[in-house]
Amino acid sequence: MKELHELSIAEAGAALRARKTSSVELTQASLARIDRLDPVLKSFILVTRERAMEEAGAADQELAAGRDRGPLHGIPYGLKDVYDVAGIATTGHSRICLDNIAHEDSAVQERLRAGGAVLLGKQATHEFALGGPSPELPFPIARNPWDPEHFTGGSSSGSAAAVAGGIARMSMGSDTGGSIRLPASYCAVVGLKPTTGLISRRGVYPLSYSLDHCGPMTASVADAALTTNVIAGFDPRDPASVERPAEDFSAGIGKSVEGFRIGYAREVITGIEGYSPELLATVDAAADTFRSLGAIVEEVKLPALELFGAVAILVMTAEAFTIHETNLRKRPRDYGKIFYQRVVPGAGITASDLTQAFRLRRELALAVEREVFSRYDAILTSGGVIPAPKIEDFSKDWPPPSLPAAAPTFMASVTGHPALAVPAGFSASGLPFGLQLVGRYFDEATLFRIAAAFEAAAGVAGRRPDLGAS
Predict the structure, then answer these.
(1) What angle do CA 152, 157, 163 make, to 5 degrees?
(2) Which of 96, 106, 306, 443 has the most crowded Cβ, counting Cβ within 10 A?
(3) What number is the average pLDDT over the span 61-69?
(4) What is the DSSP string of 21-52?
């Protein structure tokens, strides 16, 4: 028998509908794990305990009356504290916004609430989804459940820690340059950065208007697909939102990937100074696993990673400075040091710089479409390039010496292709490694299908950190 916190979204949903458990019991179990584990993990900065129990009770009543709102009905979840929830502060983990009470729900929160999901609370992030693990912020740094002395990755740090720790089956993160995929890789959870325009960003505190994405972090591929079914959809109030027919993103899960063509971007890993040979061996083994499943895996060459990184950093820095310019001038000391150091250079970015970056961004996207997705169904690479470093190895200045300067996540951030991080293995020290699958525009269903096949064959997803007695 599985413990309640071990049930997947589908398993918990089946148990709810069979009256083998209740949303109240699921929610109480999550709250109990917060009480026991979060003094160490620091994944939540606000626990909405009373609200959660009220929502769970309402879910049980509706299900008993035959009103079924879908796969997340009665399922507890968490929100990275950049998502608006009406009546609750959206702080961005910063002193700047401690009193920033939201007047309405974000689009994602609207969909989750309409789907009957149960909000556990707001989760830790890096300051405004960028500022790094800064000890001087008003909330503590989230810790990696595999070893609390180590980094979770960022910036969706609390979201990853909560899912890996079995506190929440699903948490919502945000991803601008890899902020879902890197913590997913460091914490051995699944994380989706969707195609630009698939999931509305309305009501999410922006870091970069043109690079931000919203996506789920879950314990399994199937859970990520079910969540995407609920939160995806056109939003006329988000200028980037794209109107498309509804689809079941989980439809291909469990089906064969024989004959699928996967381009292995191995050079992306080996081209980053300081990459871990253990990680490379893990992704090499993943490529072999796909071959054993009947997929055709060939090494593929992408445009230079430095170009994607240059575009991502320049655009993100310029847009973040624009968003924070007034407060940077009026309240500079209320920001954490790392956020300030990363954003203030945006004041020196010229219109010419930004124009060239947007021109190159389009050229890079077209090159990936033409040179890769004309021949392959997906790209395989890694989520990170090293195991999670120790938090104490970070300096109070940016960049920290413990992190490589480049990231394999930049490509899909710049091009807008969907990208999915999936647990792939572990280092000799027991820290997780994750692979990254990148797909064609609006082809998340294929990514979920490919990733689920790997998940089932690799046997990594069932491994969980030792957090003591349940």
Answers:
(1) 90
(2) 106
(3) 98
(4) S-HHHHHHHHHHHHHHHHHHH--EEEE-HHHH
- Residue 432, strand partner residues: 426
pTM attached to this predicted model: 0.97
Confirm whether 320 is domain-assigned.
no
Strands across the sheet with 44-47, in order? 44-47, 118-123, 76-80, 170-175, 213-218, 190-193, 419-426, 432-439, 378-382, 261-264, 296-299
Cα of 185 vs its chain's centroid, Å: 10
Domain count, the chain: 1
According to DSSP, residue 165 is labeled T
Residues 6+ apart with CB under 8 A from 244: 198, 234, 442
H or E segment at 176?
none
**pLDDT at residue 469 in the model:** 55
Lowest mean pLDDT among 23-37, 388-402, 407-421: 388-402
Q: Crossing angle of helices 49-64/23-41, nearest 10°?
A: 160
**Nearest partner of 154 among 180, 136, 135, judged by Cα:** 180
Which helix (H) or strand (E) segment is 202 a member of?
none
Q: Distance from CA of residue 220 to its chain's centroid? A: 13
Given a cut of 80, is residue 403 above it in pLDDT?
Answer: no
In angstroms, the first-to-last Cα distance of the chain is 13
Q: Let me know if residue 398 belongs to a domain.
A: yes
Q: What are phi and psi of 213, to 5 degrees?
A: -140, 150
How would you write 100-114 as a 3-class SS string?
CECCCCCHHHHHHHH
DSSP 4: G
Number of H helices, E strands in the chain: 14, 11
CA distance 122 to 45: 6
Nearest Cα residue to 437 out of 220, 191, 219, 237: 191
Q: Is the distance from CB of 211 to CB of 413 less than 8 angstroms? A: yes
Q: What CA–CA distances, in Å, run from 2 to 8, 229, 462?
A: 10, 25, 12
> What's the gap between Cα 283 and its chain centre?
20
Q: What is the enclosing helix (H) or strand (E) of 466?
A: none
The catalytic residues are: 80, 155, 179
**Domain-located, residue 465:** no
Q: Is 116 left (phi over 0), alpha (psi -120 to 50) or beta?
A: left
Can you tell me the mean pLDDT for 50-73? Answer: 98
Q: Is 214 helix (H, G, I), strand (E, B) or coil?
A: strand
Is 325 a member of any domain? no
Residue 368 has pLDDT above 50, yes or no: yes
